[in-house]
Please model this.
Amino acid sequence: MINKERLLRDNRLCKAIIGLSVEELKNLAAEFSACYLIYRKKNRKDHERQMGAGQKGFIPTPLDKLLFILLYLKCYPTYDLQGLPFGLDRTRVCRWVKILLPVLEMTLGRECVLPARQIRSAEEFFRAFPGVKDVFIDGTERPVQKPKNLRRRKKCIRERKDRPLEKGLL
Model:
């Protein structure tokens, strides 16, 4: 397991490992903990047991969960490598990533620091990047191997001929 006590004592180490200072991590951890409980209650199906009953998770505290997902997002290691410092198997790491990414997104969205990611029109693009004057779109066709199944092959060719050239930005 990661030595979080050492991580929380050394500001430089904390920034190097997860990209946040100790103070920022503690502030984010409080909000993350609340969002994690909300997420668990919302995504919980009708169970016989109460919240907190049953087998304990392999990542015990909300701070550990936050460190887990922040380390994953900073380094993007393989699941095997991500599981090593936390004592998890790669399948369990995959499950935790799928659980914790929406929780972190909910946390950052609540803090109003989530970046806008989708640009749907040229006007939005030029508003987001006012210094850009010209945009070049790579519209080259790439070769695709034809399916061996005749029905799928005909459908593939028909879709390509019927589809007009896309005039979007991205």
